[in-house]
Write a structure and sequence with these properties.
Oligomer: single chain
CATH superfamily of the largest domain: Periplasmic binding protein-like II
Number of domains: 3
CATH architecture of the largest domain: 3-Layer(aba) Sandwich
Shape: globular
CATH class of the largest domain: Alpha Beta
Order of helices and strands: EEEEEHEHEEEEEHEHEHEEHHEHEEHEH
Strand content: 25-35%
Largest sheet: 7 strands, mixed
Length: about 400
Amino acid sequence: MKRIPARFARVLLLCLLFPAAALVIGASAAGEESKALRVCADPDNLPFSDRQEQGFENRIAALVAEDMGVPVSYFWWPHRRGFLRNTIRANECDVLMGVPEGMDAVLATRPYYRSAFQFVTRVDRDLDLGSLDDPRLRQLKIGVNMIGYEYNNSPAARALGARGIVGLVGFPTFYNEENRPAGIVEAVTEGKIDVAIVWGPVAGYFAKQQEVPLALAPLPDVDVRTRTPFAFSFVVGVRKSEKALAERIQQALDHKQEDIQKILREYGVPIGAPAAAPRGRKHTDAAGPAPAGTLAVASHEEQHADNLLATPDEYQGDLLGDINRRRGKIVNIEAKDTSTVLSAEVPLAEMFGYATAIRSLSKGRAAYSMEPFRFEPVPANIVTTILDSAKAKPAARA
């Protein structure tokens, strides 16, 4: 079947969902570089960081400092809403570790690791799950980490919901004394749930600590049905004015790459293959001509538009979920004080009526802009729908 170029739009939103640690080379009042690499990190966020410096980001920060010839000191701040505002933007930190690649708010190094969400099951159950389309998921009790006020913007929950799989067991994304990060993995061990879908570093670290053997299997990089990403690359980020610092940190990461990979393996982090290079704006249709007998569709192009959406933090979950339901692909994230901004590419055909939707979801407090951006192939399932619809219509009289 011939692939049909799809015309896309771009939309902007923001939601920083990943744990991050920040490190900074401090400066004295006289402007001279200090003798320490000051790290801003969450004091209770294993396997990433903690006050005892037992997280893998703590260990990687120590490697960077060693290569730069300075010791490490810490500025602790919980990784919650406002983390950037209270650390790097308050000049408490100059550098962020564990930043998702593509975050526009910083000048980034090259990625130093990539991981993906994982299916976590007991080995003795022999479930061998590897796809969100596995029909057995409809009968299994599934645990997912929940994010947001309405628990509606978890990537796993969105992808499963698109398949009609509901009744999920929710576990907190952010931790306190009662709710610990290991809880979702321990629930698999204890048989409270059949399978958990967990962010890779968390899954690998806590699975290693269980008495019952657990199996991990990665989700696809991108869910084809909802375009929800499940694999991410991580970089070190600095303020955009700190080019020299970014280059020096990149040198340290290059020098210590073997040691970094060893630390990641030690912590059980499932390492994914590097992401493919970003595509250019022009797309070449490589699918070849439609087979004989295939019904031709009059319109071969569907436009995607470039949209900008700014929203108060409290509505970002609802708006992000809505963008994903419209087959949107998130391409950039940026925080602006108490608001969030997210950039996404969305099929133009899915954006009709969006003004009403955004007003309803945000109680009139969010705004967006949109402009044509590029063309892409229509997904195969949408092509099938178009062709079936066209076949069902009676032939026009000559």
